[in-house]
Design goal:
With 216 residues, the protein is α/β, with parallel strands linked by helices. Helix content is 51%, strand content 11%. It has a 5-stranded parallel beta sheet. Helix 8 (154-171) links the parallel strand 4 and strand 5 (174-176). Helix 7 (109-126) packs parallel to helix 8 (154-171). It is globular.
Length: 216
């Protein structure tokens, strides 16, 4: 029995390493693609992590100028580091959502907000005519599937969103609070909107779309 448990632990460890390796490969592949794709002054950029990556935004919003620049696994600093190909195009608008992966790395809500403010200042400095829309982080639901790195971290989303809203006000950018649209009475992502507790199903993207459409 002890030997079996040791084998199971070893297998899970290998799978975890392979999963991270595959994520890193995907990140580089997608980031280098974005470096080659042009951004123009009429374009609307959807910037973020896997939640943004997971949608066909130009189809959802019915606008060919909407371009997806989300990458699975990204953190706020990651967004900052890959802004050059976007900012040199001086896009019309940028919608930003990020932070949940930072939380999984044990980053506090205040630290997420500080990193986000640095990103916003960069955009304002390099592309002053670009309108910035800062979106709140969404809840997650560990009752659907346990994300071990997010265990007991629901409160950080709330704290982080509070700090992010202050950043939006301080920097004079538009704050879009999506969190209330997706949270249940227990502070978790509504189970009907996800099949893994973190990422969104199709109907949830329609709710997100309807929330931001007036700003697009």
């Amino acid at each position: 029995m002890k030997r079996l448990l040791m084998v199971m632990v070893a297998v899970l460890s290998v799978l975890s390493v392979l999963s991270q390796a595959n994520q890193d490969v995907y990140y580089v592949r997608r980031a280098t693609l974005f470096e080659q794709l042009p951004v123009g002054k009429k374009d609307i950029i959807m910037l973020g992590n896997s939640l943004t990556d997971g949608a066909e935004w130009n189809e959802l919003l019915g606008n060919r100028h909407v371009k997806n620049r989300g990458i699975v696994g990204d953190i706020v600093q990651g967004l900052y580091e890959r802004m050059e190909p976007i900012l040199k195009g001086q896009p019309k608008k940028i919608f930003i959502m990020s932070g949940v992966n930072d939380i999984s790395h044990d980053v506090s809500g205040d630290s997420i907000a500080r990193a986000m403010e640095k990103l916003i200042v960069l955009i304002k400095t390099r592309s002053p005519r670009t309108k910035i829309y800062l979106q709140s982080m969404l809840p997650f639901n560990n009752d659907v599937r346990m994300w071990k790195l997010l265990r007991d971290r629901e409160h950080v989303v709330v704290e982080g969103n509070r700090a992010l809203e202050q950043v939006a006000r301080r920097q004079g950018v538009t704050w879009i609070d999506l969190y209330p649209l997706f949270v249940d009475e227990h502070g978790k992502l509504k189970a009907e909107y996800t099949n893994d507790g973190l990422h969104l199903l199709g109907p949830a993207y329609l709710i997100w779309r309807d929330a931001i459409k007036p700003y697009v």
